[in-house]
Write a structure and sequence with these properties.
The protein has 423 residues and is mainly alpha-helical. It has 14 helices and 15 strands. The strands form seven sheets. Strands 1-4-5 form a three-stranded antiparallel β-sheet. The protein has a two-stranded antiparallel ribbon with strand order 2-3. β14 and β15 (370-371) form a beta hairpin. α1 packs across α2 (58-74), α4 crosses α6 (199-207) and α6 (199-207) packs across α13 (403-411). The radius of gyration is 20 Å and the shape is globular. The two termini are 39 Å apart.
Length: 423
Amino acid sequence: MTDAQSSDTQRLSDDALLDRVQRQTLRYFWAFAHPASGMARERSNPVAGYDYLETVCSGGTGFGIMALAAGAARGFLPRADVLRRVKKIVAFLGRAETYHGVFSHFLHGGNGATIPLSSLDDGGDLVETSYLMAGLLCARQHFSAANADETGLRAAIDALWHAVEWDWHTRGRNVLYWHWSPRHAWAMNHAIAGWNECLITYVLAAASPTHAIDPAVYHQGWRSSPLFRNAKSYYGITLPLGPPHGGPLFFSHYSFLGLDPRGLRDRYADYWQQCCAHTLINRAYCITNPKRFAGYGAAWGLTACDGDAGYAAFSPENDRGVIAPTAGLSSMPYTPRESMLLLRHLYDGMGLALWGPYGFVDSFNVTKNWRADGNLAIDQGPIVVMIENHRWGLLWDLFMSCAETRAGLNRLAFDGPTLAARS
């Protein structure tokens, strides 16, 4: 893997450029992983409040495991080395602190203890755990050989997956709750209601072979937010679900790193239409650029990322001039032409101003002449994974090959060609 952008003046082909971006971004999860656990560090730059070198993240690690599978399949990393890394992560998770099988948002990468995200958020985080489990299930499907190493890995992943008490997080009601802690119980009282990044949480909760939720939890709880349905038109594009303009672009990334949206639908939406519309609206907003920020147009993509005034979930409703490469690059399955044009602009046009040891920096604000100091796991992973889904559909194929995935989607009355092909 290269450490910096090539100084060659010859323009790379599209495929070669995608290779370079995937390889370099993958270094975040390979070279910068926590040495003791193999888990993904939350970020690559120091911030106030916690030790960034010891703090690892459960959700970002799930994204990273998917990225490692892509790296192995594409030959960027030796398959045997990736197997050893995933085994290391899974062994660590088996020793780490959990709450009814649910992992905390942040953990200490050396000893597995919870690192509180806030004063009340010092226990299990069901949403981040769902991202972790999605990654682990992809790894289970990827390492499918009959030898002892891979058989043992699959059994260890199943032990973690079966231990998650999704039904505990309903509190006996028809909705899932995000957080529980032994010190503060349900004090955060955060019901998981859409539309947002949490569809995968409900799908996995319905898919669990040991602690599945009733379908009513999805059909009553998930759609209970006033921001669930939209059906309005923005820039001539109809948006089925979500807040005005669709919200930050990670809404169309995190759940769909493994969950294949192509033709996937239920009584509420066609999810390919939802993700494509959301992306095109976000891009159209940036091109229209009503706040007249510098750099918008050729550069586009508003999502959660670091900003010049701190981390925030940027969107057309919360636009402060901050563009994140992950927003448009992770949308490549939905907008292949537009996302490739964006990649060309970022790499060929802005070049070394944005390129670093782990690929593109997390974000930038041309108006403020600012660029992020580092990278975030939850932004790095989707770049590698969604480019791979665009190129080959690998992670979609792996996740949808899980019998549990199909069972969960069927329980929730989803339909689509992927389900029919594998049933």
